[in-house]
Amino acid sequence: MSDTAAADPTVPMAAIDAADATDTIVLPGVERPSGGTPLYGLESRGVSAWFGTHKVLDRVSLTMQPGQVTALIGPSGCGKSTYLRILNRMHEMVRTAGLAGEVLLDGEDVYAPGRRPADVRRRIGMVFQRPNPFPGMSLYDNVASGLKLAGIKVSRDHRDHLVQSSLERAGLWNEVRNRLRTPGGSLSGGQQQRLCIARSLAVSPDVLLMDEPCSALDPTSTRRVEETIAELRGRLTIVIVTHNMQQAQRVSQSCAFFLATHDTPGRIVEAGDTEQVFGDPADPRTADYVNGRFG
Ligand SMILES: Nc1ncnc2c1ncn2[C@@H]1O[C@H](COP(=O)(O)OP(=O)(O)OP(=O)(O)O)[C@@H](O)[C@H]1O
């Protein structure tokens, strides 16, 4: 997006283009061919965000390396979720939302004129805090719905293959392979979250955004989702918001610490290798936060 377009942050951004929801993209195959497929990183440059006149993020620049897990940490209200939603153009679905800056996927601005939000969201998927499968829909259809929602048509055989491979990559296949026709609501919370991950993977995204994906899960399910994240690493780029410092250290290779104060919008205080951010932080505020002294 241009700074000019966002000069008046009170001007609502365009809502999702109706055509995006209905257009159909026909792809011969959407799964990554094995080997040799490039991985794409994500980069934000000078991203600022508003809700109405309330500025919540200020010039956030961050590189999220291809094939790595980047954790976004920081106290409640510092703008982590807003930032995540900016990365795949979900922020603009809020009527009062405004923003400035650039988000580059594979070097191209996802807000470039003519770029369709639905295409951006297919390449940059999102998993939410609370598992949100369609509870009455079968496990198979839940995963296949990712394709349908993205307007991707595939043959029956190819769909079967995609459903299986997505469930495998989400670490759920062995648990559900014999009951694909049972409803999504019949799974445990942790299984539901992995089902939602499988649904996101079905459209073969380049990036997966995860907004506190384990905060509604018990420790065992949390571990299982973390294993899934570890298995996905190297196959796509992952950005995860988490309040759990141990989780950030377990799953991520890079980390960014966000901070807002009562009169300043959220900014990145420090970003770098997770080991360094936790083990030898450069800023005393980072040290205080990662050691549990505030937030
Ligand atoms: N839809 C919205 N309308 C108005 N203000 C919003 C909206 N969503 C978020 N905000 C405000 O934006 C700021 C950043 O919120 P955000 O949810 O991004 O922070 P966060 O760091 O993810 O917090 P948490 O860790 O508690 O989820 C907060 O002041 C919040 O009140």
UniProtKB/TrEMBL annotation:
Q: Which Gene3D superfamilies match?
A: P-loop containing nucleotide triphosphate hydrolases
Which parts of the sequence belong to the ABC transporter domain?
42-290
Keywords per UniProt: ATP-binding, Nucleotide-binding, Translocase, Transport
MF terms (GO), sorted A to Z: ATP binding
InterPro entries with a match to the protein in the record: AAA+_ATPase, ABC_transporter-like_ATP-bd, ABC_transporter-like_CS, P-loop_NTPase, PstB-like
Q: Which PANTHER family match?
A: ABC TRANSPORTER I FAMILY MEMBER 17
Official protein name in the record: Phosphate ABC transporter ATP-binding protein
| Organism from which the protein derives | Streptacidiphilus cavernicola
